[in-house]
Every structure is written in structure tokens, then in C-alpha cells.
Amino acid sequence: MFNLNNIFISLRSLRAQRSNLDVASDEKRDCRALWARNNDDNFKTLTRHIFISVTLLPLSFLYGVGTRLHKMFSKPKALPRPVISVGNLTWGGTGKTPVVISLAQFLERNNIQACILSRGYLRKKRARKPLVVSDGKNIIATPFDAGDEPALIARSVPGAIVMSGADRFSAGMAAAENFNPGIFILDDGFQHWELRRNFDIICVNAGNPFGNGRLIPAGILREPVSALRRAQAIVITNADTVEAGALAALKQTIRRQTAVPLTATRYALTSLAQLTDNTPMNVSDIIPQPVTALSAIADNNRFTATLKNHGFIVERHLAFRDHHWFTSRELNTLLTAAANKPIVTTEKDAVRLAPLLEGLAPEKTRHFYAAKIRLEFMPGEPTWENILQNALPSLLTGTAR
Fold it and tell me: What is the pTM of this model?
């Protein structure tokens, strides 16, 4: 005899699964439309991308299963102060570090000392214990020990505490015991399931928001686009690199997932600084001359685009993989090729390059500059004050989630 109740439950389950599949299909359709807007529509290029992506789909399925299992079996630990995470959904550069710096500076202006918890990715010296990069008064660790991003954050926000280490909970506890910060910022923390967060910020790169809508390695997604629903705020970066229609389409795609505060930002080049002594220089003093661009970041092309947008004549661009540790031989080759013409690099690369310049003659290095770039909110877009005005009081009093 059939159990009608079980049949109805099964039918509801099948309907729910079909609904989920429809949502997933819609997500991928939106992602591919955005990707097509921001990429060259060369037929051969598109065909090659599609073929490679489809071939890698089985591995993407395994990646997705592994991610869900990791999340399911993780037991998040809570720190004694609220935690704001800054992360993303994709593999590759979305500009998280400038967002972290801007957020920490905003908190500092509001008399809230932040402690930034960074993994210290690809640092030269590995350590089991968390490393204090800055105690909020002095920078203690070198870039080799801490990693380039924690070192850059420490230089950019002198009043913030910066910790480096894979175990962010241990790093946070050590900071809480020794420095008593007002709030924690978890760098690249959206998929860090081991630590409980109170407020999640997702960065989305306007130039390539979600790739083709598929998970790694068939696409660039760490999680499905529907994971946007877990965030409390979304920051679109590089918003000035796409047309108004593409930005509006991206916002529409995000709004189909969530109604949380959403803003659009860009990166502004404010000044230059000599690498050896950090002497500030006006951009206008360099612009008439052709420059060599040097970068080893996640989005090297974006760096040269920023230089060109600010009037620089980029004669050549030497690009390396993200977090590349330059050698003395590479540096000498670069200086010889530049022939005393200006060399402009990123602040993150400057952190890794500066120690190599210390032993060189001043006449060799005086034309080496770091581009000072800061995060700016696009005109008319919500700022940190708008995004956090309702959340910050409850975060600091411990009444937030």
C-alpha cells in the first residue's frame, strides 16, 4: 500500500531540486553575459575557453563537493572582539588589500583600533606561531617574515595592529591578549570557515565579476554566485574600467541575489614615492617621460591601465606572477634596460623590492618609484559611513550576529 504522505514529500523535494537547478542555470547565464560584455568576442578565443572549461567540469564538481564538506565539518571559533571579513567569490585579484586598508583607515578615523588578520601568503619565512607585523606603534616584522600584503597594510595604516599567520584564530587571540584591539578585520576571509565572523564584505571585480559562472578549475569561482547571500555588504572594485551599461548589468545580477548594501569603487593614483627613501613626488613631474612599469600582482594589466589613465606613457611593462620575490639579478637587468628612465611599480611590489635596493648606488635607484594608489568610492555611491552606520554600533556592543 502506497504512503501518500511520502509521495507528496518526494514530489516537493523534486520540485525544490528543479527550482535550485533553474536558479543555478540563471546564475551561469548572468555570469556568461557579464563575461561576454567585458571580453573580446573573438570566436576562436571564445571557442577555446568553452572547450577547456567543459573539459574541466568534472574537477569543478569535485572541488564543489570538497568545499561543501569543508564548510560542513568546520567548527568556527569566536574571537573576543567582533570580526569583519573582506573576501571574494573568485580566484584571482579583486583588490581586497586596498579595501582592507581603506576600511581600517575609516575605523581609525572613528577612534576604533583595528587588528588585521592576514595569512601572509607566500612569505619567505614560515613560522608556526602567529607573527606580529605591527603593534600599532611600530612595524616589527620584515616583508620576508610577514609577507608583502601584511607589510603593506602595516605601512599604510600605522595605527593598526597587523598579524600574519595561517591560523587566524590563534593570531586573533594573541592580539586580543597583548593589544586589546577594538575590532578584527579578516583579510581574504569569506571562505575561512574556521573563524566566526560578524560582518562579511565581498569584493567583486567589475572587469571580470564571476568569470563563466563555473567553479574552479573550469571557471574562477570559489563558490557559486548564490553565496553572495551570506554577505552583509558588497564592494564592486574597478568600476571605472567598464561602461555604465556593464556596471548597471552587474549591479542587477547582484541584486537578484541579495539586497544588502552595495557600492562601486575605483583606484586613484594620488602620488609617487621614491623607493629608497619614500620621498614623495608629484605625478606631473614624471608624466612627460616614458616609463617602465614593473608589477607582480594578480592583475598586472590593471596596473598599466591605471598608469595610462593618469597620463603616463608606458614604454614597456615587465609583469611577473603575484607575490613574486625579485632577485638581485632581475633587478640589475631591469635597471640596465631602463637606462636611467623612470621605473614605476606598485606599493605591494615596492615592499619586496626595497630591501634589494639598499645596497645599490643612489644614482642607480633614484628613478625608481612606487605608485601610491587608494580606494575611492564612485560619485554618488555609498561610502563606509553609509555601509556601516547601522551595523557598527551593534558590532561594537556585541549584539550583531
Answer: 0.85
